[in-house]
UniProtKB/TrEMBL annotation:
Gene3D superfamilies with a match to the protein in the record: FAD/NAD(P)-binding domain (3.50.50.60)
Broad enzyme group: oxidoreductase
Family as reported in the entry's similarity comment: Belongs to the class-II pyridine nucleotide-disulfide oxidoreductase family.
GO terms under biological process: removal of superoxide radicals
UniProt-recorded name of the protein: Thioredoxin reductase
Occurrences of domain FAD/NAD(P)-binding (ranges): 5-298
Length: 315
């Protein structure tokens, strides 16, 4: 079994890196598989202020770089390969990549999720420069500025209410004339003096040179176009997009139990319904998707994978 890893981790965001750190530190033969560069969503975050112990002016890339150093210092092996097929039916798990095939006693899935985008021109270029998908991460950067929240579900309205603690005005942009959020959440929004709602509107373009400077709105009923410009004194404003997430789950459909939204269901030990297969981070069903919860998931998954191996494989 020399060519078989103890643990293979798919994905190298905070959950995958944390799992690799704990797994390698426990002297397990560990492989961290990365499709591209490490870091996941956090690498597009200019500043990380809410991760416990973050140093002053910490950025997403700098935090990930420190995690990578730790992983390498404990001897975890890292390879860049894109996994195209998995076979979890046997005691030894098999993964087929573009470059190689891999085998492991336990697998930790940490492929993450990606936020749905508006899909309009200018959006991708202004991510982290006025466009955000995480109020918890970025709200403080918009203190005393105006912000727009795109969406009408529970998450969008809850995040809009959270943003009122920082922004001077929060405008919810919804493509219909009725919100989808729970009535109790809607009532809180309607009562908040900082919240306004733009009914039957979508954003069709975002503009700015280095920072978000204007947004183009279209009325979904009349087709009327209007452009909003940042206040001259402020120089910029925020657009927070909450129209859902897309779990990166294509490899595991029909192989692992997921919820209706496509997130992998685990217990508090990060165990999936498949023995020897664990899931950690944003790919799993959970109430909060943050670096701190991803790192915790990864640590738990690695520790539990170690226990699984001890109980199921003889030396």
């Amino acid at each position: 079994m020399n060519n078989i890893y103890d643990v293979i981790i798919i994905g190298s965001g905070p959950a995958g890196l944390s799992a690799a750190l704990y797994s390698a530190r426990a002297k397990m033969k560990t492989l961290l598989l990365e499709r591209s560069k490490a870091g996941g969503q956090i690498v597009i975050t200019d500043e990380v202020a809410n991760y416990p112990g973050s140093i002053k002016e910490a950025t997403g890339p700098s935090l990930i770089a420190r995690m990578e150093e730790q992983v390498e210092s404990f001897g975890a092996e890292r390879k860049k390969d894109e996994i195209k097929e998995v076979d979890f039916t046997g005691k030894i798990k098999r993964l087929k990549g573009i470059k190689e095939e891999y085998q492991a006693k336990a697998v930790i899935i940490a492929t993450g999720a990606t936020p749905r985008h508006i899909g309009c021109p200018g959006e991708n270029q202004l991510i982290g420069k006025g466009v955000s998908y995480c109020a918890t991460c970025d709200a403080e950067f918009f203190e005393d500025l105006e912000v727009f929240v795109v969406g009408g579900g529970d998450a969008a309205i809850e995040e809009a209410l959270y943003l009122t603690k920082f922004a001077k005005k929060v405008t919810i942009v919804h493509r219909r004339d009725e919100l989808r959020a729970a009535k109790s959440i809607q009532e809180k929004a309607f009562k908040n003096p900082k919240v306004e709602i733009m009914w039957n509107k979508v954003i069709t373009e975002l503009k700015g040179d280095g920072l978000l400077e204007s947004a183009v709105f279209k009325d979904t009923k009349t087709g009327e176009i209007n452009e909003y410009f940042a206040d001259e004194e402020d120089g910029t404003f925020g657009v927070f997009v909450f129209v859902g997430y897309l779990p990166i789950n294509g490899l595991f459909k029909d192989k692992i139990t997921m919820n209706k939204a496509g997130y992998i269901i685990t217990n508090d030990k990060m165990e999936t319904n498949i023995s020897g297969v664990f899931a950690a981070g944003d790919i799993r069903e959970k109430p909060l998707r943050q670096v701190v919860t991803a790192a915790a998931d990864g640590a738990i998954a690695a520790v539990e994978a170690g226990k699984y191996i001890e109980n199921n494989f003889e030396e």
